[in-house]
Amino acid sequence: MTAPLKGVKVVELVGLAPAPFLGLMLSDFGARVIRVDNLDNTNGSMFARQKESMYLNLKDPKGSEILQRLTEKSDVIIDPYRPGVLERLELGPERLCQLNPRLIFARLSGYGQTGPMARKASHDINFLSLSGVMSRFGYNDRPPIGPLNLLGDIGAGSILCAMAIVMALYERNSSGKGQVIDHSMTEGVGYLGSFIWESLTQKELLWPNWPKRGQNTLDFGSPFYRCYECADGKFMAVGSLEEKFYQNLLHTLGFEEECFNRFDYESWPEMVEEISKKFKTKTRDEWTREFDRTDACVTPVLEMEEVTEFEHNRIRKSYDPKSGYPNPAPRFSRTPAIGNREGSLETDGKYESQSRDILINELGYTEQELEEFGPNVFN
To answer: What are the coiled-coil residue ranges (predicted)?
Structure first.
């Protein structure tokens, strides 16, 4: 069996989390990814599994020449740098796409390639703040919070850019031409947050206390969509939005059907207090067994070290049994990801450069030429 992206060759320039995870997704689903690194990189083997690697100094003329040769024979290059960095090295799209008109030049940046903030430094928290999305996370009496760096760096950055690359490759089948992808992670967060804008048309149902945070239906303000602490200090996640699930929640907790009016937003704090008391009468695992007998959209909040042994995850082999790392998702019936094949997920931290093999066997350099390059090319 072959993975979906078999035959696609990707050059990944070293960067922080969004670019390495982008390269990892492409690699997991069959692309050959060559990571162009430098010896000063402190990320080590983060998201490096299944990738080949080269150490190159792109400021050295020979290092620049090697990258140009490499991209001539590649389908995709991932540029994680701020706008203008590769242009200053004469390695921007004008140069590399001239050498290889079929090249997909994926530029992944905080604010995009144009605009007054294009060259400013940024991180996940900035993408969320400038997209407007962060204003919806947290509680009204506290500063906004963000969901780690999963929404900006990974969701809006890596995943949307991976989709853009696959779309560009698909379009190339008909046009025969590559193109430049200008992907702003700030714009990506806004796009992922489209539901928030759309849902404002149903303020009474979904945002009864707009614009306050943490007091609405889906932002952990409602009694039937939040987490509750159990007797052992662990938590259950309640997502009983629909009426039938809400009734199953009340029944399992031992409440009468009509004891609460869930659309009486003024009474939500009282409902939360009463439901909290119920959850504290049993441990998380006891409540898990209770809710396994019904369908109420109530599940245990698992710790990361627990997920591999959770029955559903174990049966589906959602996590690699050796490392405990998540296997790639989604699943394909005919062309599974490399990590979905038993024993094939490499997460042992090994990270070695294949510079010499790539230079000689693929790019046509001789041993003598490599000796003449000098140390600056690979530092």
So the answer is: none
